[in-house]
Amino acid sequence: MYKKYLTKEQALQKLKHFCGYQERSHSEVKEKLYRLGISKSEHDEIISTLIEENYLNEERFAIAFAGGKFRVKQWGRVKIKYELKQKQVSEYNIKKALKEIDETAYYNTLQKLYQEKWESLKGEKNPFSKMAKTRDYLLQKGYEGDAVKGMLGDE
Description:
Elements lengths: L7 H14 L4 H11 L3 H13 L5 H16 L3 H10 L4 H9 L3 H18 L6 H14 L4 H8 L3
């Protein structure tokens, strides 16, 4: 199977559509360029054009990603930060994105998840096991250990 090679202009149009559809990180765009078979020498030029034309903005991506994962999947800050690092987002943009999460909404979500998990473990006889399962669930969702500890009353 042969690979169809694109011109720089064709690749730029494809990436404009790719970035216009939803916010993308720089690493996702680079990966797409590799998949399209674009030479490394043209990568930086295409990426800088996308940034200049405001198709690609890492700060905007980080804020959208963090807000979406918190609202939709109810992830905590730890998990969001980890995922943004996986996408090679800068530390500055990660901090900025995490600040955008409303503190009250964050605490209310943590409390709601705690209640739901606690209620789902009604059949659990051992209270320590019930507490451990609830704690592990909240930590797995990406909430900070101190916040979870406070929620469980282990202070």
